[in-house]
Amino acid sequence: MLSELSDSKRVAGYKQTLRAIKQGRAVKVFLAKDIDPAIFSAVVKAAAEAKLPIEKVTMRELGAACFIDVPTAAAATLAR
């Protein structure tokens, strides 16, 4: 659920989310389904390799859940 983003430590944005996944800091990935297919598949691939759950939402929902004023492509909750 998107409320997980507001209740925990997180990163927002494609590059920061990919970095968190690759560094093993991400716990769950939130991915906008209305983004460029290349970006979408890169995040899905990285999350699958790390065996992380993915929740698909829209860019606008994701931006609002992260408390930023612009839509965002990806976000992740981080280990505490």
Known CATH architecture: 2-Layer Sandwich
Total number of strands: 4
Largest sheet: 4 strands, mixed
By CATH, the topology is: 60s Ribosomal Protein L30, Chain: A
CATH superfamily: Ribosomal protein L30/S12
CATH hierarchy class name: Alpha Beta
Q: What is the mean pLDDT? A: 93
Number of separate domains? 1
- Class from helix and strand fractions: alpha+beta
Ends: how far apart? Answer: 18 Å
Query: Could you tell me the strand content as a percent range?
Result: 15-25%
Report the principal-axis shape: globular
Q: Supply the number of helical segments.
A: 4
Rounded radius of gyration (Å)? 11 Å
Proportion of residues in helical segments? 40-55%
Give me the side-by-side strand order of the main sheet.
1-4-2-3
N-to-C order of helices and strands: HEHEHEHE
In short:
The protein is of the alpha+beta class and 80 residues long. Helix content is 42%, strand content 24%. It starts with a helix and ends with a strand.
How are the secondary structure elements laid out?
Layout (H helix, E strand, L loop, with lengths): L2 H5 L2 E3 L1 H9 L3 E7 L4 H13 L4 E4 L1 H7 L8 E5 L2
Parallel strand pairs: 2-3
Antiparallel strand pairs: 1-4, 2-4
Descriptive report:
The chain has helices at 3-7, 14-22, 37-49, 59-65, and strands at residues 10-12, 26-32, 54-57, 74-78. The chain is α+β, with helices and mostly antiparallel strands. It has one domain (3-78): Ribosomal protein L30/S12 (60s Ribosomal Protein L30, Chain: A, 2-Layer Sandwich). The chain has a four-stranded mixed beta sheet with strand order 1-4-2-3, sandwiched between helices. Helix 3 links the parallel strand 2 (26-32) and strand 3 (54-57). Helix 2 (14-22) runs parallel beside helix 3. The longest helix is centred in the middle third of the chain and has 13 residues, at 37-49. The protein is globular, with a radius of gyration of 11 Å.
